[in-house]
Amino acid sequence: MAIHENQDQKxxxxxxxxxxxxxxxxxxxxxxxxxxxxxxxKAIAKAxxxxxxxxxxxxxxxxALVGLPTLIIxxxxxxxxxxxxxxxxxxxxxxxxxxGEDQELYEYxxxxxxxxxxxxxxxxxxxxxxxxxxxxxxxxxxxxxxGNDPRxxxxxxxxxxxxxxxxxxxxxYTESQTRRCRTRTNDDGSTRRSCSWSSTTRTDNYVDxxxxxxSWNGTSDIEYTGRVxxxxxxxxxxxxxxxxxxxKYDRKEDFTKFDNIxxxxxxxxxDKSLLEGFYEDTVNMNGGSKRLGYIDWLDQQTGWFDGxxxxxxxxxxxxxxxxxxQASDEHGVEPELIAGIIxxxxxxxxxxxxxxxxxxxxxxxxxxxxGLGVDNPFDPYQSVMGGTRYIADMLNQYxxxxxxxxxxxxAGPGNVNKYGGVPPFAExxxxxxxxPQYYEDFKSVSCDTPIVESGSGNFITPTSGSxxxxxxxxxxxxxxxVDIPLAGRTHDVPIVAVADGTVRRSYYSDTYGHxxxxxxxxxxxxxxxxxxxxxxRAVSEGQKVSQGQFLGNMGNTGRSTGPxxxxxxxxxxxxxxxxxxxxxxxxxxxLECRAGARNCNQ
Length: 602
Prior knowledge:
This protein is an alpha+beta fold. The chain folds into four domains: 1-162 and 258-302, no CATH class; 166-215 and 218-253, no CATH class; 310-442, Lysozyme (Orthogonal Bundle); 467-598, Glucose Permease (Domain IIA), CATH 2.70.70.10. Helix content is 42%, strand content 24%. It is built from 17 helices and 23 strands. The longest helix has 44 residues, at 3-46. The protein is extended. The two termini are 45 Å apart. The relative contact order is 0.06. Mean pLDDT is 78; it is low at 1-54, 57-68, 301-315 and 449-456.
């Protein structure tokens, strides 16, 4: 791009940024100024690092486009806007100091959320969608054109995030016996009295116990153990009861439903970070103490750091393998162990920053990095060399014991020595269990060996299975590719490159999910193949791939109705938004059609 064109773009972006930020500040400021005076000092005092971090990421990513002078202006406007929105979220999340339309909207929200559970059942109330979550989502929506229909958003969240409860009947019966006595006269005229308990009578009492919950932020499985009490006597009657109490509660965090709603509304990573910040600050400033954990979950699922997705599968490993191998040779640490640590620490994102300030591929803390001679923890070479040196020291200190060395890498050798083994920290316990699994997994990873032999033709089949939906009109719109479903298979189904080529794009799309696009030159003709909805991506942009090389596994990411591969082929050019270069893959690629498949005539 020419310099003057870049300056023109900056000028237009500067005007748009200033205008949009001022409009938002004015809009929110008018309705919140009076309320903000009441709680502004408190809000400033308690603003958390979550919001600051999210805002910082957003502003830094904008700097290159709008320039520093404009950024300084926008910073002031945005900080005021964020503060006002935080105050609004706090007030609306609790119904405090609301009046008029705001009070009506709050009452409407409470009614909708209450309707998602049976308030007479105490075990359900804890899974009710919190007001703070909805209030925070409304505030972030206000930053977009979607923010003009808060009632619609409340309805959508209430409907889509409503908890689902599964009950099972347990027989908490009561058993009873009656004491019967009789007096007998002996031959000598004396009497004796004998008593005995009657046979047991049981009265059944079937009660519903909650055994499974699918809620807005995860699933819960509850197990019960039955116990029969001792006999309890009352006069000539005694009873005992069987009761069931919770013996195991298994909670799994899962924000998939919530994340799908935000994706459908066009939320980017920074929007989601801002929402989490609003939620946590709203809860904390109202006397609570609760961490949402949504962004941590999102990072674990997708490797999405600092504003963009990062490949969490073997592609990251292959990209940094030369550095890993060099570090392995210099410090005597197996490369698979180095890779396992990186996978756990940063999912191969060299720009990753943790909530405690650890940085880079191997997540070095500032003091640790300095001690290891690492000047720039975000430099992949320095990070891997420094981190490998550190884990090598820990292995030497603990006589090659991998578990203790990993525990020291995570929690520090001081804690390992203090507790005489792996410290009882949940994070460290998980760390020493997970990294060895990654270590074993990376032993089977190959970065350059095709998993399918090349065929005699120009293209080979991208995966196993047959087409159930072909190229052509479908439900009133054009389907520019073919779909090959998982079709009941329970094992991983690999996706491979149909021909030699260069990866032009490897990214995550809200619609395509995990997607790879490869450019091929077939006898002077440019083709581009597209592979969508995979579980992850094993290649990175710019990478040369061979025909049959592994790209990922068949999945259900993005806007997908079930696990499948969506495959497209484009000729005489690349993929574009109009898909004007798309061709029917059946004319070029050896594919099979299922019986009854739509638009699939071979």
